[in-house]
Amino acid sequence: MATPSQLQALLQAVNALLRQRRYHAALAVVKGFRNGVVYGVKIRAPHALVMTLLFKSGSLQEKLRTILQSTYTHSRNLACFVCAYKSLCALQSRVQGKTYPVHSFLAAFVGGLLVFGDNNSINSQINMYLTSRVLFALCRLAVEKGYIPEVKWNVFSLHTAVIWGLVLWLFEYHRPTLQPSLQSSMTYLYEDSNVWHDISDFLIYNKSSPSK
Fold first, then answer.
1. pTM of the predicted model, to two decimals?
2. What are the distances in angstroms from CA 164 to CA 147, 151, 158?
């Protein structure tokens, strides 16, 4: 078993290695993988816990398995993408001798295709999350660059009204086109609130138990 002095020497050696600039790109990939795992767990675990307990049926063991599987998939994919992205950026910079803006796009394009290209519920949620934010960012960039004129009136209110109008129209008349978790949320809000039998499932519970 290692003595405290040996552990201290090992720690010093590791810290010295981490400070070496020649290994910075490789070490950044390792830390990026680590951060992807941690961030994926922080984001997915609470979301999966709430959504599973609210909307999923089945035993407690099945629900826990669903939560763990969703958390694992999200954190693994995010970690692998960060690793692929940083590795490809470093490779392009090394080959071309310097960093160009297109490197980020190409690295993320390849990484996204490899990691998030599978059409499953986790990847779908992540991609839709990014889609809305990318569209917002591109609109702001277009205004900043002068490609489109800056609107002087409150466009946010109009955007809000159109989005809510469209999502409820889709829910009521074209429900299968919406993502399953959104369907579940909207069913809870707009359909389940139309049904009750007594005070128990009017105020206390959403639905009465089968025995009633």
1. 0.81
2. 28, 21, 10
